[in-house]
Structure formats: C-alpha cells, structure tokens
Amino acid sequence: MIYPDNFEQKIGIDTIRQLITEKCLSSLGEELVTNMKFSTDYETIKKWLEQTSELAQIVHNKENFPVEFFLDIRNSLQRIEEDVTAWFVEEEISNLMNSLQTINNIVTLLHNAKMENGKVKYPALTSIADKIRVFPSLSEKANSILDKSCQVKDNASRRLADIRREKVEATKAVTRNMQTAMRDAQAAGLIGRDTQPSLREGHMLIPVGAANKRKIKGILHDDSGSGKTVYIEPEAVAKATNRLRELENDERREVIKILIGFTDIVRPHMADIKRSYRFMGEIDFIRAKASFAVRINGIKPVLEDKQQIEWTQAIHPLLNIQLLQQNKQAFPLDIRLTEKDRLLIVSGANAGGKSLCLKTVALLQYMLQCGLLIPVHENSRTGIFEDILVDIGDGQSIENSLSTYTSHLTNMKFFVENCNNKTLILIDEFGSGTEPQIGGAIAETLLDRFNGKRSFGIITTHFQNLKHFAYKTDGVINGAMLYDTDRMQPLYKLSIGNPGSSFGIEVARKIGLSEDIIIDSSAKMGTDFINMDNLLQSIVRDQLYWEEKRKELDKQIEIPEPVKEKKDKSVNKQPTENDVIEKGDSVRMNGQTTVGTVLDIQGKRVTVAFGLIKSTMVMERLELVSKKRN
Description:
Layout lengths: L1 E2 L3 H5 L1 H9 L5 H8 L7 H19 L13 H9 L7 H23 L10 H7 L6 H10 L12 H30 L10 E3 L2 E7 L8 E6 L5 E6 H32 L3 H27 L5 E2 L5 E6 L2 H8 L8 E5 L3 E8 L5 H16 L11 E2 L4 E5 L12 H15 L4 E5 L8 H17 L3 E5 L3 H9 L2 E10 L4 E8 L7 H7 L4 H11 L1 H21 L38 E4 L6 E7 L2 E6 L2 E6 L3 E5 L4
Parallel strand pairs: 1-11, 6-10, 9-13, 9-14, 11-12, 12-13
Antiparallel strand pairs: 2-3, 3-5, 4-5, 7-8, 7-10, 14-15, 16-17, 16-20, 17-18, 18-19
Helix pairs in contact: 2-3, 3-11, 4-11, 6-8, 8-10, 9-10, 15-16
C-alpha cells in the first residue's frame, strides 16, 4: 500500500517517469513506463533489477545494441487478425519486416553474448529472449516482394513483370501519339509553334482556339474561363491513355494479389508475432530504465527478502540532476534501518537536510520496488516494504478547510491503523502544527505505537522528548543532520547514534539578533536546556573533527585514535590512580559543563551517558570530574 494518493507527485516519481519516457524508442515502451508500478514481490523485483542492470551494462559499455525500427504496428496486426479479407499494404510490410529484423537482431545478440567461461553473459535478458520466436523466412519473403523504396518489385510475380513491361510501352505510345498530333496541328496552323501539351486529370490535352475545336479529331475535355481556349485529347492519344489505364488497374489488382498472398503467409503466425512485439516493448522499456540508470549512476544493490535499509552514499537523483547543471553535486547520505534500530528520529537545524533525507528514502525505496536502479554504493543492502506511508508537507486543502495540524493528525490516524512490521513510515516535522507540549506528547505516544507494531521509519523533529524517547527505547534510535557551527551552514550529512541541536541560538546570533535578546532568551530556556544543547553541539563538532580524519566511509561514523592538537602542560606528569578514567566515573567533555557517567570503556573509546543522551568519544576529549563512589 502506498499513501497518500498523491504520493508520486510528493516525492517526484512523476518526474522520474517523464525522464524515462524520454529515453524510449517507441510507444510500446512509453506505455510500459506509464504502467510501471510498485511491487512487493521479492522475485519480481529481483528479476526487474537484474534485467535493468544487464541492459545498463550494455548501455554503459556502448555495445552495438539494436536501436532502429522500434515500430509499433499493433493496429495493423489487429486489423489483419480481425478481418480475414484485409491485407497488409506496402508500408505495413516494410515496417513489419524492419521491426521483425530488429527483434531478430536483439535475440541473436543476447544468445551470442557469452563470457570467457562460456556462460551466458546476460541471463536475465536472455531468459526473456528464449521465449521469443524469430521469423527469418518472413523477412526473406518481404525482401523478395518490396524494394528499398517500399514498392512492390517488378519480379514479385511473373504477371506483374509482364504488366509493368506493357505499361512502359503504353506510356511511350501516349507520348509518341501526342507528339504526332501536335506536329499535325502545328502544320495545319491550328496551334502555334511554341504551344505545349497540357496535363489535366491524367489526360494529355492540346490547347486550341475555340474557333478550331472541330478541326482536331478527339475528345473535348475542358475550356478556359474566358471560353477562348478549349482542351482536346487527340483520338490516338485517348486510345493509348485508355490502354495505359487498363494496365494500371491490372497492375493494382496484381499488387493486391501479391500483398494478400504475403498476408496469408503471416496470418497463421499472428500469436507469435504479437508476442515478439510485446518483447520489443519490454526491451524498449528496460533499455529506457537502463539509460536513465546510467544517467543517475544507478546500480543494483544487494536485495534481500526482508525489511531493511542499509544504504551508503545514497543520492537524491532529481536533486543531483538539477545541481549538475550548475556544476554542483548532491551530498550523499548514509542511512540505516535494521531490525534492531527500526525507527530513526532525525533532528538538527532548520534547512539542514532533514526533509531531503526523508524524500531521498521515499523516492529511492519506491524506485527500487518499481524495478529501477538507484544511486547508492554497491555495498548497500536493500529490502522490501509492503507499505510506504508518507507525511511530507502540511497537506492543507482549501476545498475542505483542513488545518495543517488536522491534516497531519488525519495521516497519523491512518498510519496507526494500517502500519505493521513490514511498513515504512516517513514523517516530516513530527508533532508540529500545534502547541509544543501537546504536539510533543501526542507525537511520543504515536511513536510508541509505531514501535509497538515494529514498523520501520524515519521521522524528523525538533522535540526534545522524542530524542529522549529514542535514547531509552529499544527499536528507536537518534540521528542528526550535521551542521558546521564555524561557518554556520548545514553539511547535509546524516549521523546516526546521537540527536542533533537545532542551533537556534547560534543562528540568531549569526543573523545579528541583539545579544541582550539572546541572553534573556537563554535565561528563559534555563541552564539545563542550554547546557544540553551545548553538549549536542559539542558532540557534532567532535564528529566533524574525526570525520575529516577517517580514510573511508563506513555505515556508522567511526572515530579513530586521535592526534592531539596541543600538548598538555602536564604531559610529563605521571598520572596517578585517581587521574585514570574508569567505568562509573563522572566526566565532562573538554570545555563543557554538563557532567555524564562513564558506561563503558573499549580501549581509547569511552561511552558516556549525559542524562538521556548517550555518546561514544575518545578518552582525550574527556576530563575527570569525580571518581565512582564505592
């Protein structure tokens, strides 16, 4: 199930369809793009991805894949099938011949594509081609009937050859007889020396003055508007023309006889031919998907028949297309939803990429289950969801006068009633639109229900209570969109494991809000709130510092052993037993006031609980406040 009804417009799938349609070579493929749909069947999705991946390899390697004559002749086939008296005209035979040859070339290419070990190179595509029958005899027959200009050849039958030979002689007779009649008329002074014959409605005529119209033996056809000139077809010319007309009729009857004969050869194979055209449409569709995948660097990630998202370097393809036009690139995201951590609560500064994170997940997961390759790292692991439920934007409707919050709650009611352990829930600004205490309380209760049903999801929020809920609740985990406090700009990077600060005070100070307003506002928030927000910002800075140090991307932010920036003044002082940080000790981060408790120590890495916030950092970033009481 996909929710809401305008899901595709909300996340951009309608634009994806348009871009893929532009890659199609025929209306056959375009129709399949229009009908492209979301699937929840593992084997079906796996097959779609394998087919598209193989054709993307062909496109990327610039192999000589047939791309001409992807012609849609279904109407012609249907007409022949429904009417036993109908026949293919010359253009239809030409289109049939060319398109069947293209189908034959595709099937041959796939069957001949082998790897060095002799195995089939493109098994998913070849399995489709194996079911398709080709018709070399029909192509041969069509070639024996039509020439390159799509006309029936003279030698298509002996009778036609004789008729056309006689036509040539009859045409010459018309010309010869007209030349004789013109010379006689000029000799008799009935027409001038510069008079030329006139062709009207297929008849060769002599223009003669009205006074001389009875002096030339023939048929009067027309006169000028003034009546001063009449047009006469000489008798000998008329006789030759009539013979030519008879031969033209004989020719047309013989051509139709030949076309009917070819049609009768085709008619018994109609079912197989129609199947071949469905194959052509499917190949066109797959090729269009593959071409689009090459454009967005889409790949076939590891697909497993379970619910999971473990993506590395995931890119929003539509955003990246726009940015590439400006010589920029979208920032990649590392996103993880597993059975252990199913619900991710993403916090951070406004305009920091939280909504983009949601839309990236919605778009790529939907694309994947439509059989489209997605722009992620090849080591990414993907799964399948039976439902994708999205609440992005306020959904406000002028027609039904729903407020933002009412619309939001309507969606939440639907989510709670329909979600399960195979549902992916994506909610932007969870609990917003009403008084914070009420919104936060309802959001926390809803989050508890989603977790109780073991649903998966990503939820963005500014509410502190949801961050605390994620910390203390199994199945729910915090995440933060990182923010550069030095440059006061978002980094569009998702860090999973810790909540993020909204950086409200810092942004206010950056834009020049009066310092006395900032001081008074901080006082109203209280010391505990300010200390906690400062702690979150320090954690972010710590993550960014070591982010620059690590040599390769991992699914989580790994903090390597640090190199001290400054030597401690007491570096030569030997530490005493009381200076060593141990499990249970009270500590704080360097330069911070918030005190936490050491939960675990693994070498240089220390896990500390700062109230409801748990963070892992290196030992050198901590200072001892007090030893554990025995």
